[in-house]
Amino acid sequence: MRSLRVISSYSLALVVLSISTCMALADFRVCNRTESRVGVALGYKDSEHWTTEGWWNIPPGTCETLVRGTLIARYYYLYAQDYDQGGEWSGKAYLCTRDKEFTIQGIADCLARGYNRTGFFEVDTRSHKDWTVQLTEQNQTPPGLRAPNIPPGPAQKKQ
User: Fold this and answer.
1) Backbone angles phi, psi at 59, to 5 degrees
2) For each of the chain's 159 residues, which pLDDT tens digit applies?
3) Where are the domains of the chain?
4) What is the distance between the alpha carbons of residues 55 and 38, in angstroms, rounded to a whole number?
5) Distances 61 to 36, 41, 129, 148 between C-alpha atoms, Å
């Protein structure tokens, strides 16, 4: 009887693990594949409103989930900066940010509202439920140079 309880407990643990693993697959993640600490800001539009949020501080060689659960938008916008070596990942989509932790509603009149106007790059998730962006030194703009449009790092669809 004891072995039956152990098997039942083990089976229940596998079911819970499987459910939590399946639920975790619907996320938007950013992986820092550099040797530096990276700060990341995220922008997105739900059905009607723009929101920008930041900062996620991602240590070298790790990933951070920025959006948990099913993605609410096809397009997300990222801006990231290399805290240790300088440089950034940026683009031509201008959204509002702040130097400290923030959640900002709207993208108009950033400077007039007391925010920074920052160039984000677009990530097309192609309406997938799960998406991961890889930040690498190769797709980073070096310090002191601002490229008009930096493409996102190799995004990987997780299945």
Assistant:
1) -65, 160
2) 444 343 333 333 333 333 333 444 679 999 999 999 999 999 999 888 999 999 999 999 999 999 999 888 899 999 999 999 999 999 999 999 999 999 999 999 999 999 999 999 999 999 888 899 999 987 676 654 443 333 333 333 333
3) 27-156
4) 9
5) 9, 18, 24, 27
User: Can you read off the two tokens belonging to residue 38?
Assistant: 């990276």
Contact by Cβ (8 Å): 133, 123: yes
In the chain the beta strands, taken as DSSP E runs, fall at 27-32, 38-45, 50-58, 63-68, 75-82, 88-89, 93-97, 102-105, 116-124, 131-135, 155-156
92, 96, 98, 104 alpha-carbon torsion, rounded to 10°: -140
Write the DSSP assignment of 52-98 as a string of letters: EEEEEEE-TT-EEEEEESS-S-SEEEEEEEETTT--EE--SEEEEE-
pTM: 0.73
